[in-house]
Design goal:
Largest interface: A-B, 23 and 24 residues
Shape of chain B: globular
Order of helices and strands of chain B: EEEEEEEEEEE
Oligomer: heterodimer
Number of strands of chain A: 12
Number of strands of chain B: 11
Radius of gyration of chain B: 13 Å
Shape of chain A: globular
Order of helices and strands of chain A: EEEEEEEEEEEE
Strand content of chain B: over 45%
Largest sheet of chain B: 7 strands, mixed
Helix content of chain B: under 10%
Distance between the termini of chain A: 41 Å
Helix content of chain A: under 10%
Radius of gyration of chain A: 14 Å
Number of helices of chain B: 0
Structural class of chain A: mainly beta
Chain lengths: ~120, ~110
């Protein structure tokens, strides 16, 4: 079984400041990792994913994340945030074994950008 | 760009009634999923569906729930006798066979009164 921990339920950040949203996971098997964003009253949109290869992955809207296997972390970063980044961000994992592809989500982090 | 669609966007029903939530996955996708998000809580997996059968289901997905792909385009979630605790946002997702990315629909907000 897998689990995902997002320790920060809310993160307020000033516009144009950098941000890091933390994600730690637990799993007994190899995993794929994802960050999804949910804008108000909308569905989930994939920001980025780590499947294999380079541990630094770049996504849409200037976000990037780094996979750290030893620390079982997949933190999301952006060097300079905009008002439009205000949203809920979810970290998720899935088993790499075929047929076990359900996503296990964290509890989410609400990012609020302060003008 | 193709997207997953869901109808209705909001459904209000009385306790004990049956509801059917509808989803149209992306047309060339082969794997289909339902997730739910109770207000203020995390998104939880309900069920996955492939080749016209359930491939995995969670403990939430009890006998009151069923899924169906009645034709080549729709994917439905039926709750036979709704309870207050079924009130949640229900998301449908689909995935191509060759990719690990699940594409999510905008969700159906179910309110059970």
């Amino acid at each position: 079984a897998q689990s995902v921990t997002q320790l920060d339920s809310q993160v307020p950040v000033f516009e144009e400041a950098p941000v890091e949203l933390r994600c730690n996971y637990s799993s007994s098997v190899s995993v794929y990792l994802f960050w999804y964003v949910q804008y108000p009253n909308q569905g989930l949109q994939l920001l980025l994913k780590y499947l294999s290869g380079s541990t630094l992955v770049k996504g849409i809207n200037g976000f990037e994340a780094e996979f750290n296997k030893s620390q079982t972390s997949f933190h999301l970063r952006k060097p300079s945030v905009h008002i439009s980044d205000t949203a809920e961000y979810f970290c998720a994992v899935t088993d790499t074994n075929f047929g076990n592809e359900k996503l296990t989500f964290g509890t989410g982090t609400r990012l609020t950008i302060i003008p | 760009e193709p997207e997953v669609t869901q109808t209705p966007s909001h459904q209000v029903t009385q306790m004990g009634q049956e509801v059917i939530l509808r989803c149209v996955p992306i047309s060339n996708h082969l794997y289909f999923y339902w997730y739910r998000q109770i207000l203020g809580q995390k998104v939880e997996f309900l069920v996955s569906f492939y080749n016209n059968e359930i491939s995995e289901k969670s403990e939430i997905f009890d006998d009151q729930f069923s899924v169906e792909r009645p034709d080549g385009s729709n994917f439905t979630l039926k709750i036979r006798s709704t309870k207050l605790e079924d009130s949640a946002m229900y998301f449908c997702a689909s995935r191509k066979g060759s990719s690990n990315e699940q594409y999510f629909g905008p969700g159906t907000r179910l309110t059970v009164t």
